[in-house]
């Protein structure tokens, strides 16, 4: 796994071959096929592991939240880190772009990682719905919509490099939390808190 992750980080999914993984890991073919049935299964495992690492980072941010609105804001902040925080973006940018490009080409390869990445957000949306904070939402659909809004900001920053994080954050929070039906005073509180 480590060898495959390194190759994907350095050269992208297209450069990943079983032979290169075996060479880098100093393993034989038999050892590889004990763990994976195919290259696609290996790529799926690489993306899933990447998502799990990212989810652990996001959960640390969400742990400081005292309610679902703050938790959704923390998840949004965490995902915006991909574009605006140099310590995060350097490692995850290439893998995130690779995963995004595979989403349409091979959704079965990236789907488990995508669901993993959305899981902390989905949990907070479900909690907020149960608590009556988010009115009339469909948590699975809304998790995907929120991810799309955040991803648009991330891509815009990657493309231009001149976005203002505070403005992007405020716009995404206002749009997303407003769309979820969060109370105005709670939205204002998370926008003020940076």
What does this structure look like?
The structure is a single chain. The protein is mainly alpha-helical and 194 residues long. The protein has one domain (39-192): Tetracycline Repressor, domain 2 (Orthogonal Bundle). Helices cover 81% and strands 0% of the residues. It is built from 10 helices and no strands. It has helices spanning 2-11, 18-25, 29-35, 39-62, 68-84, 86-105, 107-130, 139-160, 165-180, 184-192. Helix 4 runs parallel beside helix 7 (107-130). The longest helix is centred in the first third of the chain and has 24 residues, at 39-62. The model has no long low-confidence stretch (mean pLDDT 86).
Provide a compact summary of the structure.
With 194 residues, the chain is mainly alpha-helical. The chain has helices at 2-11, 18-25, 29-35, 39-62, 68-84, 86-105, 107-130, 139-160, 165-180, 184-192. The radius of gyration is 18 Å and the shape is elongated.
Search tags:
Tetracycline Repressor, domain 2, 194 residues, mainly alpha, single chain, 81% helix, transcription, Tet_transcr_reg_TetR-rel_C_sf
């Amino acid at each position: 796994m480590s060898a495959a992750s390194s190759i994907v980080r350095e050269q992208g999914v297209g450069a990943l071959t079983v032979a290169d993984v075996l060479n880098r890991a100093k393993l034989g073919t038999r050892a590889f096929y004990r763990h994976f049935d195919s290259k696609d299964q290996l790529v799926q495992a690489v993306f899933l592991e990447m998502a799990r690492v990212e989810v652990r980072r996001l959960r640390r941010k969400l742990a400081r939240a005292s309610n679902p609105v703050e938790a959704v804001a923390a998840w949004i902040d965490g995902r915006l880190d991909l574009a605006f925080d140099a310590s995060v973006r350097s490692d995850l940018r290439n893998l995130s772009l690779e995963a995004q490009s595979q989403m349409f080409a091979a959704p079965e390869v990236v789907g488990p990682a995508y669901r993993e990445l959305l899981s902390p957000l989905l949990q907070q949306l479900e909690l907020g719905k149960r608590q009556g904070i988010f009115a009339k939402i469909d948590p699975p659909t809304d998790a995907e919509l929120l991810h799309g809004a955040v991803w648009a900001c991330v891509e815009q920053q990657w493309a231009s490099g001149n976005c203002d994080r505070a403005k992007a954050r405020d716009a995404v929070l206002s749009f997303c939390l407003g769309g979820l039906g969060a109370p105005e005073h709670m939205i204002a509180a998370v926008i003020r808190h940076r």
